[in-house]
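target protein:
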Amino acid sequence: MEIRMLHGYTYPLSPRCTANLAPAPPWRYAGDTVGVEFWTDPAAAEATLPDGLSPDPDSAGRAVTLFVDWQLSAGHEEYPDPVRSLYREFMVLVDARWRGRPVVWCPYIYVDNDLLMARGWVQDLKAEGLVNFGTDLDNPNFADVATALGIHGRGVEPPDEPVEALRAAFDHRGPALAEAMTARQELSVPPTITFDQVKGFALYAARTVLSGRGDELLDPARTDVMRRHSSSVWRA
């Protein structure tokens, strides 16, 4: 029996290298953008800033929202499936100061396409040597919210498999919501790791320790080393 190796730039891998969510770069973009400038309560804008950033005293709560319709081109996959590379993006930009210099901070950004989510995971800031930071959101349990609204809802947390929750959602006649909890600091590891990525992660680790956030290195260790496990293989 012939055994074919699995290939792909991102998961899931396949023998013909056609199942991966995000194709290999280069990635090229074209899109239409609408920007809305507004002023909010300076205290509300300051509440979104992470450690290291301070409010811009000259902006008085100035912010910008961007609504973008994107077309992504990568590996010419948009020709056989144009919809696959179309997505919408929304983001909020807030004026701030970093070491006395005016900067723009993005506390919220949303996309509606899994291809772009996968591309974001691969384009990991840690592999570029950058210390990531962001605004923590105290989200509710969305599965419980769905249930309270009369919608089928079920949540899954590691190390439980999401297969049963997804099967129950698809089998349900009517609206359904399946919520899967992920590890925020888990590293996105592509099938092939380059020397530049290793060097970049070493730089990220050094910068994280020097910035007094060395405890954040424990999360990737727990999720990527101590709790690494293999899931079931499904054939479809």
The CA atoms of residues 150 and 175 lie 9 Å apart.
